[in-house]
Amino acid sequence: MKKVLIFSLIVLGQSIFAQQLALVKEKAKIGYIDKSGNYVIEPAYETARSFSDGLAAVKIKDMWGFVGKDGKMAIEPSFTKARDFNDGLCAVERDGIWFYINKNGEKLNMPYSDKLYDFNNGLALIKVSNKIGAFDTGGKVVIPAEYDVIKPFQNGYARISQNGLWGIIDTAGKVIVPVEYNDIGEYKNGATWAQKGKAYGIIDGSTFSIAEGADKVWDFGNQPITYARRNGKIGFVDKAGKWVIEPKFDKARAFNQNLAPAYSGGKWGYIDMKGNFVVEPAYNDAEVFSNDNLAPVKGKNWGFIDTSGKLVIPMDYDISVSFGFNEKNKGFNDGVSRVKKSGKWGFIDKTGSLVGNKWFYNAELFQN
User: Fold this and answer.
1) Of 23, 76, 332, 345, which residue has the fewest beta carbons closer than 10 angstroms?
2) Which helix H or strand E contains 193, and what residues bound it?
3) Rounded to whole angstroms, how far apart are CA atoms 135 and 124?
4) How many CB atoms lie within 10 A of CB 5?
5) CA–CA separation, 340 vs 287, rounded Å?
6) Low-confidence ranges of the chain (pLDDT < 50)
7) Strand, helix or coil at 224?
């Protein structure tokens, strides 16, 4: 019986700390709700940040500390400034000096850097004499400070620049795409776009294939084709740089769920993988389908359609975008969408129901 009780407590604890919470502001105080709309942490803070890596920075009087998802103070307020935890570490400031702490609030000895960067994908950038490298959570320099630019790591890869040219490295510092391109995109699922001289094309692995006539290419979404421009019109190219949908649209966005927003004749609709409209152009704006199989569309305001093109949530809202590294889509993320109506913020579920039946003065996206 004791073993069953202990196991139940462990599972309960894991579920508490795994759940996503959203920062909300009700009147003058900030608290945190779960996806049912219930307060997990009652509004008690005048200034606070969203949860990240299981902790949220909160300001009490003039000092910042961190609370856990149980609402208890995990790191006592003693910092004049604080960022977000990532990979178990966080940059904070005390007495005008920035340094890293762990989740016990302990100050860590890390390599010297002219500027402190947040950890991401297990690494933090290091800047020495205007050159950029990176070190891991143990303080080991894994990428020497020899690059002019290292963009934030995404999906285990980062764009790097030396002497005005661009390439791609992984988190071990291995060069995946040689530093020989004039511009380069985000490396995702083994592919990215790049510019070499005046030519634009696609890198698949490390092989560069020119997209004939393209003068701009955008980052890949979740599918193996991406949109590109030729002679002022937008079409789609595959990983070999081949035009699989000829440029004929005025505007377009990425494919997801085998559908992509496309703009023609002054209105937005959705095309299939052959470039045919399956949702006829009828909207003033339209965004990419989320993994929840819903896409935001705009008349006067925003609503949502399903993959059949049916309007399932009325066009009554403003919407927001997630700027996280792994989620860039507007609208729905993991079953809920942050929306604004009549000057207040809240969340709706996939049926269009208001989560918790409550609006807030402010609401941030759900975070771990």
Assistant:
1) 76
2) strand 191-196
3) 6
4) 9
5) 17
6) 2, 4-14, 323-327
7) coil
Alpha-carbon distance 340 to 149, whole Å?
Answer: 37
Q: What's the CA gap between 342 and 329, in Å, rounded? A: 23
Q: Give the DSSP letter of residue 351.
A: T
Q: Report the Cα 88 to chain-centroid distance in Å.
A: 19
Q: Which residues contact 80 (CB under 8 A, 6 or more apart)?
A: 62, 63, 64, 93, 94, 95, 96
Taking alpha carbons only, the member of 356, 328, 309 closest to residue 35 is: 356
Q: What are phi and psi of 123, to 5 degrees?
A: -135, 155
Q: Note the pTM of the prediction, 2 decimals.
A: 0.90
Distance CA(21)–CA(216), nearest Å, equals 38
pLDDT digits (tens, 9 = 90+) for 9-54: 344 444 555 799 999 999 899 999 999 999 999 999 999 999 999 9
With H, G, I as helix, E, B as strand and everything else as coil, classify residue 251.
Answer: strand
Q: What is the pLDDT of residue 12?
A: 41
Q: Is 208 exposed, middle or buried (0-12, 13-18, 19+ CB in 10 A)?
A: buried
Summarize the chain as % helix, strand, coil (round to 5). Answer: 5, 55, 40
Which residue in this structure is represented by tokens 């590294």?
325
| Distances, alpha carbon 59 to alpha carbons 46, 93, 254, 328, in Å | 7, 13, 40, 28
User: 160 forms bridges with which residues in the sheet?
Assistant: 150, 167
End-to-end Cα distance, the chain: 32
Extract the tokens encoding 242: 């081949």
d(CA 247, CA 258): 18
Closest by Cα among 21, 16, 23, 13 to 59:
23
Residue 23 belongs to what H/E stretch? strand 22-26
